[in-house]
Amino acid sequence: MHVKIVSVGRLKSGPERTLFDDYRSRFDKLGKVLGIRPLEIIELDDRKVSGKAGEADLILRALSNDIYAIALDERGVQMCSPKFSQLMSQSRDDGHNALAFVIGGADGLHHSISDRCQKSLSLGTMVWPRTLARVMLSEQLYRAATILAGTPYHRA
């Protein structure tokens, strides 16, 4: 299974990038054992579009029809890490070739993205900058992989 992060904007060098790269590397190593390909990042250049509708066009072009897509949205469902790992394994077991997590721009996601995505997930009731959302998502992807592999990283 492919796991992708489709994100409006680029993650520049700095502490967020360092953390993201660390969790991505960990996920990629453990993912091999679980039949998950290396994490793919699709960064969408939002400098040439305006507003949520323009960003939505970029996002929709990045999502092929066979991708099971999950929007990161403050109004989405909150779930604990073991449930998140179940979501990943269920997606894999249901035969989805690809699972994509969508992170919108500063103004959030256009309704067309919410309509396209099969699920909406919240990282909490607080609003997070997309750079931190990407770091937090990468950590949760790694944590989910450790739960599925039975390693002691997750100690709930």
Describe the structure.
- The chain is α/β, with parallel strands linked by helices and 156 residues long.
- 46% of the residues lie in helices and 21% in strands.
- It has five helices and five strands, in the order E-H-E-H-E-H-E-H-E-H.
- Helix 1 packs parallel to helix 5 and helix 3 packs across helix 5.
- The chain is globular and about 45 Å long.
- The model has no long low-confidence stretch (mean pLDDT 94).
Q: State the share of residues found in helices, binned by percent.
A: 40-55%
Find the structural class using helix and strand composition.
Answer: alpha/beta
Number of strands: 5
Shape: globular
Spell out the key features of this protein.
single chain; 156 residues; alpha/beta; Alpha/beta knot; 5-stranded parallel sheet
What's the short version?
The chain has helices at 15-34, 51-62, 81-93, 111-116, 130-149; strands at 2-8, 40-44, 67-77, 98-103, 119-121.
Layout of helices and strands, plus pairs?
Layout: E1 2-8, H1 15-34, E2 40-44, H2 51-62, E3 67-77, H3 81-93, E4 98-103, H4 111-116, E5 119-121, H5 130-149
Parallel strand pairs: 1-2, 1-4, 3-4, 3-5
